[in-house]
Amino acid sequence: MRMPLEKSVPAMTAIVVWFCLGVQLVLIINQMTGEGATVLEAVWRYFGFFTILTNIAVALVATAMVFSKPSFLNNARARMITAASIALVGFVYSVALRSAWSPTGWQLVVDRGLHDVSPIMFLLAWYLSHHGKLVWRDALLAVAAPMAYLLYAVTRGALDGWYAYWFLDLTQLSTFEFIRNTLLIAFTFCLFALALIALDKWLARRQSLDQRG
């Protein structure tokens, strides 16, 4: 039996993202242990990136979307927050990080997979899902995701002195610069969430008209 698009796209998304996450873990372990770090230290570093944490969310939600049953991971808010988060990953990487390094080999593959392919595929999966249950205040709930990461990143940095991204590095930024970057990220994320909610409402109206027709 042929799988419908609303299930096949999330399934393909989950496969691609889980694969890239696994390869990235192997790469960072190999790199850091080659430099004298332990496997535990490499795994700790792996979970310090917003890209990794967001793509784990993408993989989990996409996997849940393959099944019709509503769940904590497969509901309108979870899908929207994940879509806004991975869109932010792609946007910030393209604007602030892509030019900072030139990966090659498998690192290039997973770099493109986690920053380019994952946002496109998950946003398509979100587009094909059911719509009409989001409300405007959900945008405020969505902003909690990057804000929680900022708190996590700052706490980690205070403990071990390592920051995943230069625009959050308190050892290099003034208080004003850090607050400015935080507000800019929150504002951008809120815009993404509002855009998705607006699109959700439009798609719900279109689906309703299609059903009547």
In words, what does this structure look like?
With 213 residues, this protein is an all-alpha fold. Helices cover 76% and strands 0% of the residues. It is built from seven helices and no strands. The radius of gyration is 18 Å and the shape is globular. The model has no long low-confidence stretch (mean pLDDT 92).
List the keywords.
single chain, 213 residues, mainly alpha, 7 helices, 76% helix
Write the layout of secondary structure elements.
Layout: H1 5-34, H2 39-46, H3 50-65, H4 76-97, H5 105-128, H6 138-160, H7 175-212
Oligomer: single chain
- What Rg is obtained from the alpha carbons, in whole angstroms? 18 Å
The N- to C-terminal Cα distance equals 27 Å
Q: Number of helical segments?
A: 7
Average pLDDT reading: 92
H-E string = HHHHHHH
| Category by helix and strand content | mainly alpha
Bulk shape: globular
**What can be said about the biggest beta sheet?**
none
Q: How many E strands?
A: 0
Describe the structure concisely for a colleague:
The protein has 213 residues and is mainly α. Helices cover 76% and strands 0% of the residues.
